């Protein structure tokens, strides 16, 4: 079992047992309410009782009354002593935690006929640090004017002393000299920051003689015994750890069995350790964790390591800890204490766990009402000066704001660039949520100058303050031209945790240098919560649709591991490729220091979901995302060749062994082909040192260290280019001839909407298969830009035409029709992303909004998806052609060709590309065709269930009555929706 320890002062003397009750109270409270800025006590007196309040210093006993109320129908009535002293009071011994921060507020009004005076809240504090053992702390203002004509608020912030032994809150009339009566109502106490070390979760002192739930880690023995000297808190019991035979062995605790330890929260864990016998090696102690989940039977983490341990002094070891439910909730979570010595015995005592920051709230627990301030009421609407030096005034601007409001907020007297208006967003912005933020700004004076206005976020967590730019840094340029200018940020992802009450949005100026203290107005400020997207659950799964053909993969990053993106991933894909987190610079930025946190999370998610994983990549031929040390000094000297060879081998060994069989395929060498070079190879940094042999070294290392059967790929782009394809085949033959264990080829396929052709994609696959039929092939990085190849200037922004999306959808249909026919030649298709809200093409080849993936910004299916899964849902599906003829002369007919659209959606840009007659019977002749225009003949955008047509004239003069013809009209819609209308014509007989 475990129990809560008693709390001790800085002088290490025990404090009264009442604080233990406070711990119990808080733990009970935490089990029922979210762990954020939380109200720990309210006193409204609405039940008709005094809610535990009593007389202080000679005042009358407080009673609940309906004679007045700030809210509701009741308040508390008290009369001071005859000398004016005293008032209503409440003991907070079991409410406030030592070291925690609070706001304490209430409302006071004098009874009718009482003379106006002053009032405040005061805390009587019993504390050995006070002179005489007692202090009186004013909460908020010492004198708040009060009368019988209205309620006034009293109170403010209060930090409970870490050494207090008793707390009594009371309201008093300051300066009163005779008995006066007052009403008190709506007293609210809110914890705004936990105590140092966090809000107490659990503490273990072993004072009851038991093990308090601790068990051996390894074969160590645990004994509750008296240490040779009391611990720093004066405890005479501790946990002795003996019979250790390895450094990891020690005492352990099942954290999943500790109440209120939850995923996503951050905790501080501390313990005191004492060596049982002198050890000249100066061993240390480490708090560690072992986590098992669906992806791992044992992942180890370090919380903190102590200084050298001693036999004469207890050594504190303290650190922070958090855990995630990704890739799946832990099946076990063990905290244990180990030593750098394998055999030393040691004592532990006073292990404490405190919550530093709570887990992010789910959207259903958040206040997502946002903030709107128009200043129309003449107030500041919650805005204040950042420094307290600038002046904020609700006043009429020189011109009405864009919404015609007559009042705005003016900030003047600024003393620094950062000194601007701020507004609290505590309980309005939440870590992990997304927001749209906007405001209008008017600079003063109107002098034609130019200013950069920046909207930023200030958050404080555990005493550390962070300043995050909300607008793109440095900000938005606003001219002082007498006009309002809008600052707007869409989709801002709030990623900062903060102490309760410690988050502010603020406006500042950011000059190129020096100071810009210009005054400015703001108006029409809006903070709007953006609900997370929801996926469509009633549409077909992409990977299940292709289950009989090949796996369907997606490139991912850590943002895809939770929420709707994870739902989209699991529904539609059965393979994943970490986009950046397995690359050399991400895994081993510093030689010999490996960082697998993100990669483990992504691969772990795949393992838990039974998805395949492609590793991308081990060596990038161009040197992209490769740390500088990897190629040594860059020369091809024998010494540097040995260094670089060892670097490649060491990196590949560590990474492929780390992931083992969890990764079934690796892009061992990425993009090594360059058709402009005589040897067809990129002459990148690895080539400069090792020549072509760097490829051999990489593949041989991967073959040696990866599990047997791992697919080892060369991954390459633009394989549809004839020169690139020829070089690829040439290099593959050369590698095979040298015995390099390449067994697979990846075709990236980063395509544009006009290039390459589907036929060239098929040709690339067929060519490699014909030349090297035993090589596995995959489409590894498929996306389809909505822009033409070579077009670096167009930008659809947020308004991509529906016709372009339809065109993309029909092209995706062509792709996947081709891929189906390539079954047996390709073994997987992987998209480079999932949805348009996260694509690398937004920044390549230029910064602009692209839409290359199956799902849109809201994670919903778009035509691209339907082209892949069910083309009957594509716009223009069901487009059909018919024709009618009429005689217009002895040998002439008019043929009207009509395109009738289906009921799915518009048939965009419908074209007749030719009008051809092929004679099938009779003496050869040459009918003359008169078209209504030049080819292609545009029928335009045909609306849903609408139609459009064109009339052609055919002159059969010179043709015999036995002549017969076949009319063929190739057509297209949305560029890639194609077909041919065919009809038999009887020639001159059609003229009868």
From TrEMBL:
GO molecular function, one term: endo-1,4-beta-xylanase activity
GH10 domain ranges (all copies): 536-871
Gene Ontology biological process: xylan catabolic process
Keyword annotations from UniProtKB, A to Z: Carbohydrate metabolism, Glycosidase, Hydrolase, Polysaccharide degradation, Repeat, Signal, Xylan degradation
Hydrolase found in the keyword field: yes
Catalytic activity: Endohydrolysis of (1->4)-beta-D-xylosidic linkages in xylans
Domain of life: Bacteria
Enzyme Commission number(s) of this protein: 3.2.1.8
Keyword flag Cell wall biogenesis/degradation: no
Similarity-based family: Belongs to the glycosyl hydrolase 10 (cellulase F) family.
Protein name: Beta-xylanase
Annotated organism of origin: Acidisarcina polymorpha
High-level lineage: Bacteria, Pseudomonadati, Acidobacteriota, Terriglobia, Terriglobales
């Amino acid at each position: 079992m475990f129990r809560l320890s008693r709390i001790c002062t800085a002088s290490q003397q025990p404090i009264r047992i009442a604080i233990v009750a406070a711990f119990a109270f808080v733990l009970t409270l935490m089990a029922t309410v979210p762990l954020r800025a939380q109200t720990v006590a309210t006193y409204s007196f609405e039940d008709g009782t005094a809610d535990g309040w009593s007389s202080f210093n000679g005042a009358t006993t407080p009673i609940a009354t309906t004679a007045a109320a700030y809210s509701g129908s009741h308040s508390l009535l008290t009369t001071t002593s005859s000398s004016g002293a005293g008032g209503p009071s409440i003991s907070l011994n079991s409410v406030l935690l030592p070291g925690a921060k609070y706001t304490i507020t209430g409302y006071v009004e004098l009874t009718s006929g009482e003379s106006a005076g002053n009032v405040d809240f005061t805390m009587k504090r019993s504390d050995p640090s006070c002179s005489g053992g007692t202090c009186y702390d004013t909460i908020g203002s010492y004198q708040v004017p009060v009368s019988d004509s209205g309620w006034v608020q009293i109170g403010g912030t209060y930090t409970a002393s870490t050494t207090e032994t008793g707390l009594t809150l009371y309201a008093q009339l300051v300066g009163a000299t005779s008995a006066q009566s007052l009403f008190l109502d709506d007293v609210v106490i809110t914890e705004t920051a936990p105590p140092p070390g966090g809000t107490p979760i659990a503490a273990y002192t072993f004072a009851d003689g038991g093990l308090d739930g601790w068990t051996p880690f390894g074969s160590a023995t645990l004994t509750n015994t008296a240490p040779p000297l009391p611990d720093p808190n004066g405890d005479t019991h501790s946990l002795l750890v003996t019979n250790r035979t390895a450094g990891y062995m020690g005492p352990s605790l099942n954290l999943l069995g500790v109440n209120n330890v939850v995923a996503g929260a951050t905790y501080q864990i501390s313990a005191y350790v004492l060596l049982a016998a002198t050890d000249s090696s100066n061993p240390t102690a480490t708090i560690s964790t072992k986590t098992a989940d669906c992806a791992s039977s044992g992942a180890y983490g370090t919380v903190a390591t102590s200084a050298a341990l001693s036999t004469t002094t207890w050594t504190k070891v303290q650190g922070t800890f958090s855990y995630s439910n990704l890739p799946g909730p832990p099946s076990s979570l063990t905290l244990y204490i180990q030593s750098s010595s394998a055999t030393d015995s040691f004592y532990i005592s006073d292990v404490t766990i405190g919550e530093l920051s709570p887990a992010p709230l789910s959207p259903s627990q958040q206040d997502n009402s946002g903030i709107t301030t128009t200043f129309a009421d003449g107030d500041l609407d919650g805005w204040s000066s950042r420094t307290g030096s600038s002046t904020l005034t609700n006043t009429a601007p020189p011109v009405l704001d864009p919404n015609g409001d007559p009042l705005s907020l003016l900030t003047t007297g600024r003393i620094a660039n950062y000194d601007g208006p701020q507004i609290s967003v505590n309980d309005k912005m939440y870590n992990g949520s997304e927001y749209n933020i906007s405001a209008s700004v008017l600079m003063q004076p109107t002098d034609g100058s130019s200013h950069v206005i920046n909207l930023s976020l200030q958050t404080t967590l555990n005493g550390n303050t962070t300043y995050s730019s909300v607008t793109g840094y440095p900000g938005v340029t606003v001219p002082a031209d007498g006009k309002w200018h809008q600052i707007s940020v869409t989709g801002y992802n709030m990623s900062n945790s903060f102490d309760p009450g410690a988050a502010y949005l603020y406006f500042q100026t950011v000059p190129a240098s020096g100071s810009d203290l210009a005054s400015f107005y703001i108006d029409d400020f809006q903070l709007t919560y953006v609900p997370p997207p929801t996926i469509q659950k009633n549409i077909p799964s992409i990977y299940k649709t292709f289950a009989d053909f090949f796996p369907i993969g997606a490139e991912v990053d850590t943002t895809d591991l939770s929420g709707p993106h994870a739902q989209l991933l699991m529904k539609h894909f059965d393979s994943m490729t970490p986009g950046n987190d397995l690359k050399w610079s991400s895994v081993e930025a510093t030689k010999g220091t490996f960082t697998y946190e993100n990669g483990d999370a992504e691969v772990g998610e795949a393992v838990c979901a039974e998805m395949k994983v492609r590793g991308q990549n081990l060596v990038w031929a161009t040197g992209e995302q490769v740390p500088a040390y990897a190629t040594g000094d860059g020369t091809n000297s024998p010494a540097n060749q040995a260094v670089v060879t060892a670097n490649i081998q060491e990196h590949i060994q560590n990474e492929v062994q780390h992931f083992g069989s969890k990764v079934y395929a690796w892009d061992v060498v990425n993009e090594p082909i360059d058709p402009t070079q005589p040897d067809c190879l990129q002459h990148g940094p690895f080539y400069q040192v090792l020549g072509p042999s760097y490829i051999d070294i990489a593949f041989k290392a991967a073959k040696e260290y990866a599990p047997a059967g791992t697919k080892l790929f060369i991954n390459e782009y633009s394989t549809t280019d004839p020169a690139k394809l020829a070089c690829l085949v040439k290099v593959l033959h050369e590698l095979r001839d040298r015995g390099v264990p390449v067994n697979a080829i990846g075709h990236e396929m980063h395509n544009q909407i006009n290039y390459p052709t589907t036929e060239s994609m098929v040709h690339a696959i067929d060519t490699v298969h014909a030349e090297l039929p035993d090589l596995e092939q995959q489409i590894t990085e498929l996306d389809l830009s909505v822009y033409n190849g070579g077009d670096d200037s167009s930008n659809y922004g947020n308004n991509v035409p529906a016709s372009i999306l339809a065109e993309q959808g029909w092209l995706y249909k062509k792709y996947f029709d081709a891929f189906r026919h390539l079954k047996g030649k390709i073994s997987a298709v992987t998209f480079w992303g999932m949805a348009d809200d996260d694509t690398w093409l937004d920044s390549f080849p230029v910064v602009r909004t692209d839409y290359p993936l199956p799902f849109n910004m809201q994670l919903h299916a778009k035509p691209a998806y339907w082209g892949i899964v069910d083309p009957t849902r594509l716009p223009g599906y069901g487009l059909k052609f018919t024709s009618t003829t009429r005689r217009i002369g002895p040998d002439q007919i008019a043929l009207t060709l009509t395109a009738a659209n289906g009921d799915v959606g518009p048939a965009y840009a419908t074209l007749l590309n030719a009008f051809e007659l092929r004679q099938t019977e009779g003496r050869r002749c040459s009918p003359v065709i008169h078209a209504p225009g030049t080819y292609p003949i545009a029928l335009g955008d045909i609306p849903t269930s609408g139609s459009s047509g064109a009339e052609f004239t055919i002159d059969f003069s010179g043709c015999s009555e036995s002549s017969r013809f076949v009319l063929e009209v190739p057509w297209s819609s949305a560029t890639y929706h194609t077909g041919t209308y065919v009809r038999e014509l009887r020639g001159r007989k059609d003229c009868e």
